[in-house]
């Protein structure tokens, strides 16, 4: 009996070694230059040129190969891109080779690439809220040219990214629909570029609270000599720099026309979420990131970096199907109307009334 067990153990070890050798051989055979352009974008969402630019940025940030047969940095990046795009370890890496890596290796590659994409200088390079008047004026002008709404520097909303049950502080991530998630706040411009993102809060946190703690709020409130607006839904408190809909506005009244235009412009953030999650499907609410909240938040930021790279490069991404859109809507938690202090609310109402009056004058 003991001899038989030893033979079985030896056979299992040899089988594991053979699988490892086969994976190594497949990796060595992988030549990305042989992958057709459309297939490359389909697998990794980036064009070949954009992939090379990404490699230049983050290869120096990846751990060096520790062994002769270690994973090449470029293959690590391809592996991570494939996971972000599919949201699964089971997708192909390379030319439909069914992933020439063990799942543990894929996970390690994903963590290393995600950490590199979260390097402070990488985040600053690709996700940047306008910091001076000229930059803000450029964004304002684009919103105005597209929609006729002045002084808008961004649209804001939160979107939910599902995660597995955390081992610590579970209550922070458990939402009213009874699953665990990261409540991710995003600000975008009219081109669907993400200018600010916060993926550090759980599903139990209200959108308005995340905004109150956001450094961008303090930045906008400090612009005393400049008119700037973010557009948000009624989950945000009306403020001088946060334009929300008018409650119970009569259709075709000045307030009703403002609501129509405000919602039309605010759809920009909804389209941004659709493009982001259509391209990087690991973020779909119907799927779960099987990582702790901190790592899941870093994956979200990494996908936002890659989203902006693709938007700037003009690379089209796969759109969500109607079924996927419906699944997203079902899994997102409806907003709750934000509470508001009297003084700040009055200042917000004055600013919104002035905007409504300006829009009415422009109609004449």
TrEMBL record:
<keyword id="KW-0479">Metal-binding</keyword>
<dbReference type="InterPro" id="IPR045249">
    <property type="entry name" value="HARBI1-like"/>
</dbReference>
<dbReference type="GO" id="GO:0004518">
    <property type="term" value="F:nuclease activity"/>
</dbReference>
<dbReference type="GO" id="GO:0046872">
    <property type="term" value="F:metal ion binding"/>
</dbReference>
<dbReference type="GO" id="GO:0005634">
    <property type="term" value="C:nucleus"/>
</dbReference>
<keyword id="KW-0540">Nuclease</keyword>
<dbReference type="Pfam" id="PF13359">
    <property type="entry name" value="DDE_Tnp_4"/>
</dbReference>
<dbReference type="GO" id="GO:0016787">
    <property type="term" value="F:hydrolase activity"/>
</dbReference>
<protein>
    <recommendedName>
        <fullName>DDE Tnp4 domain-containing protein</fullName>
    </recommendedName>
</protein>
<keyword id="KW-0378">Hydrolase</keyword>
<comment type="similarity">
    <text>Belongs to the HARBI1 family.</text>
</comment>
<dbReference type="InterPro" id="IPR027806">
    <property type="entry name" value="HARBI1_dom"/>
</dbReference>
<keyword id="KW-0539">Nucleus</keyword>
<feature type="domain" description="DDE Tnp4">
    <location>
        <begin position="156"/>
        <end position="308"/>
    </location>
</feature>
């Amino acid at each position: 009996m003991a001899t038989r067990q030893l033979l079985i153990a030896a056979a299992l070890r040899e089988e594991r070694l053979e699988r490892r050798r086969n994976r190594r051989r497949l990796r060595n055979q992988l030549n990305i230059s042989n992958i057709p352009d459309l297939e490359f974008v389909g697998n990794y969402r980036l064009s070949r040129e954009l992939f090379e630019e990404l490699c230049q940025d983050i290869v120096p940030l990846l751990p060096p190969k520790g062994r002769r047969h270690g994973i090449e940095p470029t293959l690590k990046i391809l592996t991570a891109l494939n996971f972000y795009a599919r949201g699964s370890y089971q997708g192909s890496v390379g030319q439909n080779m069914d992933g020439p890596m063990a799942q543990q290796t894929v996970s390690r590659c994903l963590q290393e690439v995600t950490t590199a994409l979260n390097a402070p200088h990488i985040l600053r390079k690709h996700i940047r809220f306008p910091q001076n008047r000229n930059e803000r004026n450029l964004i304002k002008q684009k919103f105005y040219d597209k929609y006729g709404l002045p002084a808008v520097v961004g649209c804001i909303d939160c979107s939910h990214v599902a995660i597995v049950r955390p081992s610590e502080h579970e209550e922070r991530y458990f939402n009213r629909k009874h699953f665990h998630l990261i409540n991710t706040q995003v600000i975008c411009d009219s081109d669907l570029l993400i200018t600010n993102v916060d993926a550090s809060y759980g599903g139990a946190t209200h959108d308005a609270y995340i905004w109150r703690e956001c450094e961008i709020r303090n930045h906008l409130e400090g612009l005393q000599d400049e008119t700037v607006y973010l557009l948000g839904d009624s989950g945000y408190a009306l403020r001088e720099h946060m334009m929300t809909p008018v409650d119970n506005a009569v259709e075709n009244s000045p307030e009703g026309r403002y609501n129509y235009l405000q919602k039309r412009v605010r759809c920009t953030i909804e389209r941004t979420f659709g493009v982001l999650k259509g391209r990087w499907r690991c973020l779909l609410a119907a799927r779960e990131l099987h990582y702790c909240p901190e790592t899941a938040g870093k994956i979200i930021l990494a996908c936002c970096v890659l989203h902006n790279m693709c938007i700037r490069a003009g690379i089209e991404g796969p759109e969500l199907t109607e079924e996927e859109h419906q699944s997203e809507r079902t899994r997102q938690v409806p907003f709750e109307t934000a509470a508001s202090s009297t003084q700040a609310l009055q200042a917000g109402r004055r600013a919104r009334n002035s905007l409504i009056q300006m829009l009415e004058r422009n109609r004449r």
